[in-house]
Amino acid sequence: MATARDCCHGGEGGERRGEVGSIVRSLGCFPTEAELHELLAKVEEEEPTGYIHLEKFLPVMTKVLLDRRYRPIPEDVLLRAFEALDENKCGYITKEELVKYLTEEGEPFTQEEMEDMLSTALDPETNTVRYRDYISMMIVDES
């Protein structure tokens, strides 16, 4: 995964546009895809090159961090969302159900996002996501 420090070393003096979401999330910010596109619009060159330059990225990201924007979703909200998907109330969701929900409903996950989530969330023995365990792994301690 790329870091903010990599921004000044990528390709032509900047980080590839596609890596910015990973950098932003690594800093504890969790924007939606629409919010990420807005953020990218603020830091891109007038003539997009496919790279984001550190001198443009740092001031924008500093303001995002100071304003505490794009905070993670609270644990109780995540739990209610998973419980709503768990029609049988058994404490888990199958891989197939989760993939269907996250790629066909609302703001769909990309293939890469889906693979990243499943690599962490999926129990390989049962091919299910025990969502309480997964939520516990995702929680960010803000103290």
Write the layout of secondary structure elements.
Blueprint: E1 15-16, H1 20-26, H2 33-43, E2 51-52, H3 54-66, H4 75-85, E3 93-94, H5 95-104, H6 111-121, E4 128-129, H7 131-138
Antiparallel strand pairs: 1-2, 3-4
Notes on the protein architecture:
It is a single chain. The chain is mainly alpha-helical and 143 residues long. It is 50% helix and 6% strand. The chain has helices spanning 20-26, 33-43, 54-66, 75-85, 95-104, 111-121, 131-138; strands spanning 15-16, 51-52, 93-94, 128-129. The strands form two sheets. A two-stranded antiparallel sheet has the order 1-2. Strands 3-4 form a two-stranded antiparallel ribbon. Helix 4 (75-85) packs antiparallel against helix 7. It is elongated. The two termini are 25 Å apart.
In short:
With 143 residues, the protein is mostly helical.
Name the descriptors.
single chain; 143 residues; mainly alpha; two-stranded antiparallel ribbon; 7 helices; 4 strands; 6% strand
N-C termini distance: 25 Å
Instruction: List segments where confidence is low: pLDDT < 50 over at least 5 consecutive residues.
Output: 1-13
Q: How many DSSP H or I helices?
A: 7
Helix content: 40-55%
